Amino acid sequence: MAFAVNIYFDPETEALLQRYWKALDHANIPNKTQRAFRPHITLCIFDDINCDDCECYINQVSSQLSMHAITLDHIGIFNNGQKVLFLAPAPNEKMLRMHKEIYETLAQYARNPWKLYHPNEWVPHSTLANDLEEEELMRALAIALEIPLPIHTEISQIGIIEFDPIHTIFEVDIKD
Known about the structure:
globular; 31% helix; eight-stranded antiparallel β-sheet; alpha+beta
């Protein structure tokens, strides 16, 4: 099992992305794990983490994330082994600084961070579909191109999930 630290969008953006997830489902685009999650951006993943210490830290940092705006402005594809279709923000200095601080602090309470989420490797993204074959990717992309970009959103929550199976450990509302 592993643990992911995720940031979640405001309710309107979450509902919009879930509508497109449903459109992908109706088009028989497979998504082996994503539908069990809420739309999100993963900040880091660790093989193991002390959740009590992390929850204390997350509660403290949540006030610093207040009104953190994100603009999802492009569609992307990871094509390194498995094909993944995603929406992504153009990362800005504030987002990268927030990610690095959270990653480095939580790493003190965790074991075996996943390399793709290291501050120098991280590509912020919100997965639309994953584990796609070439033909599925093309069909999924046609649906994704209907998403009205840019999407201006805010971070509404931050939390930790454990997976597989998927289990929410905690979520903290971002305070104004």
